[in-house]
Amino acid sequence: MPTRSRARRAPLRRAICGAVVALATQVGAPTAYAQVPPPSNAAAAPARRGTVRTDTLWSQSLGLMKTLTVYLPPSYSASTGTATQRYPVLFYLHGYSGNERNWVDVGHLDRTLDSLAAAGHPEAIVVMPDGDDSWYTTWGGLADMPACRADTVRKESADSYCVPWQHYDDYVAHDLVTYVDGHYRTRADRQHRGIAGLSMGGYGAVALALAYPEVFAAAASHSGVLSPRFLGPVPFAEPARYANSLADMEQASRGLWKSIAQAFGRDTIAWGTREPRQLAARLAARQAPTAGAVSWPQLLIDCGVDDPYLSQNRDFHASLQRLGVAHRYAEWPGAHTWGYWTTHSAQSLEFLLGVVGSR
Fold first, then answer.
1. CATH number at residue 123
2. Which residues of the chain are modeled with pLDDT < 50?
3. For a disulfide at 88, which of 117, 192, 254, 266, Cβ 3.0-4.6 Å?
């Protein structure tokens, strides 16, 4: 297993956001920079607040107990007496070396949700799972369980971190969805379920939505690792170059080789099956992006202009344009920091709630 400390990390350097810069997102339109409105600001001091709680569940896909943080909206407890109101569900995934508390403790997602509810936006149950350093995928090989259990540096218990079966995609799309629908008053269907994440979690959100379009109606990625085999050019320009050897893949991983190689495997075929652009191409081959028995998930992609993964995001954006997949794409001032993610989480929430909370 990858080693890491699960201590609660202090907020990273705050990004300073000035004028907003975004890229045109209309399919078929030329890519050009344009001024767009900044994120909406909801009420600063909502009169009613939601509840944040910690649950545990048995994951059959992983073979052990896992922890999740759950946000219940302000009206959830107020309507307990009748137990009739049901809510859409959003899943928010943490990044590499993160944990299930990051979005609340560092990103203050609960406060943003309270403010959006006070401003009249639809309410939702929000689930923040413990995803380890998994990349939210089924791993290319089994972990070294004896070595994981012998690790004395890691602060998390081996009982919850040393995973026997690394089927993290099924853990999210099946185990978590089933648990939440069975324990809370959800609107338990695909039309009322969305997913989002940052960095590794941004990758996970997009990959899961494309691999399980029957489960998630929408996905949002902040600063996602969305083109793992991308080598250049940097800044992004066509034609792009992709890793085709072990050495190339290590170069493309940008310092995350040990973790990402354990999850994705050590060959280009294994990496290709997990790449969002390839997942999108396979979904497009099964059905048109605007029609079919299983609807395409709606997608929102954003990244900071000083983020090291900006060119990867531009490459994925270009791939979706070539496929004719409608999506929203934006670039904003900022870097790969909690300052950026906290500032723009309201946008992903508004986007997802606009899809899953309006019908």
1. 3.40.50.1820
2. 1-39, 41-43, 81, 292
3. 192
- Residues 237-272: tens digit of each pLDDT: 999 999 999 899 999 998 899 889 989 988 888 888
Number of domains in the chain: 1
In a domain, residue 291? The reply is: yes
Is 237 contained in some domain? yes
Structural domain that includes position 50:
22-356
Q: What is the 3-state secondary structure (H, E, C) of the chain?
A: CCCCCCCCCCCCCCCCCCCCCEECCCCCCCCCEECCCCCCCCCCCCCCCCEEEEEEEEECCCCEEEEEEEEECHHHHHCCCCCCCCECEEEEECCCCCCCCHHHHCCCHHHHHHHHHHCCCCCCEEEEECCCCCCCCECCCCCCHHHHHHCCCCCCCHHHHCCCCCEHHHHHHHHHHHHHHHHCCECCCHHHEEEEEECHHHHHHHHHHHHCCCCCCEEEEECCCCCCCEEECCCCCCCCEECCCHHHHHHHCCCCHHHHHHHHCCCHHHHHHHCHHHHHHHHHHHCCCCCCCCCCCEEEEEEECCCCCHHHHHHHHHHHHHHCCCCEEEEECCCCCHHHHHHHHHHHHHHHHHHHCCC
Q: Is residue 296 part of a domain?
A: yes
